[in-house]
Design brief:
Elements lengths: L19 E5 L8 E6 L4 E8 L3 H7 L6 E7 L4 E8 L5 H15 L5 H21 L7 H18 L5 H7 L10 E3 L2 E9 L5 E4 L11 E11 L9 H11 L3 H13 L13 E10 L21 E4 L7 E2 L8
Parallel strand pairs: 7-9
Antiparallel strand pairs: 1-2, 2-3, 3-5, 4-5, 6-7, 8-11, 9-10, 10-12
Length: 324
């Protein structure tokens, strides 16, 4: 289980005798957000929304075990979207959700859009808890997911529709390759700047093509904490969320991130990654690989490494992936 074990914003808020006590979240953006406690000592997060959002709340609200969601009438034609943590023992996880939610609505100016973004994050949180992968991603998993997000952006930026791009992203579903679209499959790998010149292939399935066109794409990533161009995993996720305009694609994106065990925790603000280089290889019959159909009977669960200098003859321009 994730355990952050750090001071929470509710530690300094007293339990009120009536209603609830609140404290404004500093730097939250144009939509006011408050930490709070109610008369029973429950931890709250309140988002203040101008206007009437009852219909939107009824349509899009979701039930999450351990968290109560309410839309309460405020003052001066305002409503308050209130998240209430029902069990104090889950305060660390709730804090992570609230911090992520605050960051997601900070750039939003429209109250209706802020409510939509908040509810989308809560749906992702629900999927995350249902997946029972409540642990932090390892450094290798962070880099791997980051690389897949880089390729995902290339799919919907001029090559496929947003919805089709999301459907193509299938690494979390346990299929052979990370991306499959049309008659093309792409396995995405990441290397850190410090790693030797080999790429790890984790199974005999990864480079066995069920499509006519199979590619291996490698992103070499450097940790550049002082670079303005470098992005954290949280940054990469937010960038895609801000770019997606199709609500179905955004929902698919949230569900697949949850399947990977990702939620936007503060721990994923580092490392700050920047692309050092990108290499794309076409996997043909002559490509050096171990595949299930070529293994001796009884041999399974194979992992191995490929020397990149030995596959230089198979390198192609990335645009080959999208040629028909």
């Amino acid at each position: 289980m994730i355990s952050m074990n750090r001071q929470t914003p509710w530690d300094e808020i007293r339990i009120p005798s009536t209603d609830y006590n609140v404290r404004l979240v500093a730097g939250a953006g144009s939509i006011p957000v408050y930490w709070g406690k109610d008369i029973d000592g429950h931890c709250l997060l309140l988002v203040e929304l101008a206007g009437d959002h009852n219909e939107q709340f009824r349509k899009d609200s979701v039930q999450v075990q351990g968290i109560r969601l309410d839309l309460r009438q405020g003052d001066d034609e305002q409503q308050r979207f209130v998240l209430t943590l029902e069990k104090h023992v889950d305060q660390d996880l709730f804090s992570g959700l609230c911090e992520a939610l605050i960051g997601s609505i900070a750039p939003v100016n429209d109250p209706a859009a802020a409510l939509s973004v908040a509810l989308a994050h809560i749906k992702r949180w629900k999927a995350f808890l249902a997946g029972k992968k409540t642990r932090l991603l390892s450094p290798e998993e962070i880099r791997g997911l980051f690389a897949e997000l880089l390729f995902l952006r290339s799919l919907y930026q001029g090559n496929l529709s947003e919805k089709t791009a999301m459907q193509a992203w299938c690494g979390v579903e346990g299929v052979h390759q990370d991306f499959i679209f049309g008659n093309t499959a792409v396995e995405v790998k990441s290397l850190s700047g410090k790693e030797r010149n080999t790429v790890h292939i984790s199974s005999e399935n990864q480079l066995e093509g069920l499509s006519d066109n199979l590619f291996l794409m490698i992103f070499r990533l450097n940790d550049m904490p002082d670079s303005d161009r470098a992005l954290s995993l949280n940054d990469a996720v937010r960038r895609i969320e801000n770019e997606l305009t199709d609500s179905g694609a955004l929902e698919d994106f949230s569900a697949k991130l949850a399947g990977y065990g990702y939620i936007p925790l503060q721990e994923y603000d580092l490392p700050k990654l920047q692309i050092n280089s990108t290499h794309t290889y076409r996997v043909t019959e002559d490509f050096p690989r171990l595949i299930r159909s070529g293994l001796p009977e009884g041999v399974t669960r194979v992992s191995y490494e490929i020397e990149l200098e030995k596959i230089s003859l198979f390198e192609v321009d990335t645009e080959h992936i999208f040629r028909r």
